[in-house]
Amino acid sequence: MLFYLTILSIFLILYLLYILYNFLETKRHQKCYLLDYQLYKPSDDRKLSTEFCGEVIKRTKNLGLNEYKFLLKAIVSSGIGEETYAPKMVFEGREDRPTYQDAIVEMEELFEYTIERLFKRSGVSPSEIDVLVVNISMFACMPSLSSRIVNKFKMREDIKTYNLCGMGCSASLISINLVDSIFKIKKNQLAMVVTSESLTPNWYIGNDKSMILSNCLFRSGGCAMILTNKPSLAHKCLLKLNCLVRTHHGSNDESYGCCIQTEDDQGRVGFHLGKNLPKAATKAFIDNLKELAPKILPIRELLRFGIHLATLNFFKNGQKKSTRAVINFKTGVDHFCLHTGGKAVIDTVARSLGLSEYDIEPARMTLHRFGNTSASSVWYVLGYMEAKKRLKIGDKLFMITFGAGFKCNSCLWEVVRDMEGVENVWKECNIEDYPPQTIMNPFTEKYGWIQDEDINTFKVPE
Rounded distance, CA 309 to CA 314, Å? Predict the structure, then answer.
């Protein structure tokens, strides 16, 4: 009897060890790593100088005196420099009549620059990619852009492709969330994410102020990245995804309509940025942080915040509070990748999180050098940190993005490999010159006087 009990005990122990091994092995394969990424840098002949921007505005026939002055004011206060990039058709003077082929060429240039370099540097071949996710919000074609990539790089027949449209500036984190979900159920996967925006067919030629503003903010850019859940590649990867939180306020009509592609009174399609956009962004941001904070902050900070908040509520005595409880995200985060939606977006997030000028320097410099590159903007911010040698093993990196819908998506990465030796487009921009002693907007000197000019005496230059 003792013999059988011993045998049974051995089998039971082995079975429990087998279950534990499978559990740990599954967890090991469910991690999401960033193996490598490649930013897009268009050729220098696509740079938007101060003078050329003025020429583009002047040749827009539908603009009146008020709209002309409004655009110049916007570009003066945008925080954007004169080394950002625009599509080819703008330099050819055809922004009012782009062709379908123009949009295709814009995307092909992005694919050739980023994907080819990424494959070469990472050592991954196109045939090894199991999943491909492409997010270009404002351009859809047939076959899809993901199919074009599969055809161009001759990827496998069983590759799983996803083509995301209409997801706005927060689309890259949505793509990563999709990849991470796939990694939870499939082992040993390699996934590619391509994130950008198509400006060619979406240049607004009307005179609605809420729609012409997008022409001042959005610039050409993009990024391709390879993610994996292969344990064998973990030591080669740059970042590990710790958590990702998505917030969607699309059920609220005000939030839904504050950032939307639509037609103006003349039937001209453009991208409307409503006056209630800051309010919608703030609501989504707060709700996102409420869910994210417990996932990334130490317990001591959560307790401190809770005690502080309870104390303020207890002593307020029905009067308006002069102070408010503020949670310190720096206790769980070392670096902040902020979406470069505009100077006001960066400033608002910085105030909300209590960030220093050092913390937001990468976002400010990205806006100044590359502009708002939509869903790829946070990757240029990451590239700046990398080129500046800020990222060390074990550091926590917080990404925050906003997008139409209205959406706020954020995630926390952990640096798992020294990133000092990796080349990126910022090194080609003389990274040693950033940040400059004074960030002078080149448009201020030429157009800044307009802010104080009497509208009745202002003359549109010939």
Answer: 9
CB 245 within 8 A of CB 409: yes
Identify the active-site residue in 215, 288, 339, 408.
339
Is 7 inside any structural domain? no
- Both tokens assigned to 245: 């939180």
Element (H, E) at 69: helix 65-76
User: What does the pLDDT read at residue 232?
Assistant: 93
Global confidence as pTM = 0.90
CA distance 343 to 21: 50
For the chain, what is the domain count?
Answer: 1
- Yes or no: say if 289 and 444 are a contact pair by the CB < 8 Å rule: no
Q: How far apart are CA 450 and CA 444, in angstroms?
A: 9
Q: Smallest Cα–Cα separation from 373: which of 386, 383, 359, 361?
A: 383
Q: What is the DSSP letter of 100?
A: H
For residue 82, pLDDT over 50 is answered with yes
Catalytic residue among 53, 163, 229, 248: 248
Active site residue 29: no
Residue 226 to residue 37: CA distance in whole angstroms: 6
**Three-class SS of residue 310?**
helix
What would the two tokens of residue 281 be? 């962004």
Report yes or no: 92 and 18 within 8 Å, Cβ to Cβ.
Answer: no
> Residue 178 sits in a domain of what CATH number?
3.40.47.10
Active site residue 248: yes
For residue 239, what are the domain limits? Answer: 30-312+324-452
Give the C-alpha separation, 326 to 217, whole Å: 31
In a domain, 378, yes or no: yes
Helix axes 343-353, 357-370, angle to 10 degrees: 170
33 membership: H or E segment, kind and range? strand 33-39
User: pLDDT tens, 339-354?
Assistant: 998 888 899 999 999 9
Per-residue pLDDT tens digits for 135-161: 999 999 999 999 999 999 999 999 999
Type and span of the H or E element at 91: helix 88-91
Predicted pLDDT at 329? 92
In the chain, what percentage of residues exceed pLDDT 70?
Answer: 86
Omega within 30 of 0 (cis) for the link into 443: no
* Residue 119 CA: distances (Å) to CA of 194, 226, 411, 417, 456: 13, 9, 25, 19, 57
Question: Is residue 11 domain-resident?
Answer: no
Catalytic residue among 335, 408, 411, 441: 335
308 flagged as catalytic: no
Residue 219 has pLDDT above 90, yes or no: yes
Query: How far is the C-alpha of 381 from the C-alpha of 324, rounded, in Å?
Result: 30
Q: Is 285 within the bounds of a domain?
A: yes
Angstrom distance (rounded) from CA 204 to CA 198: 13
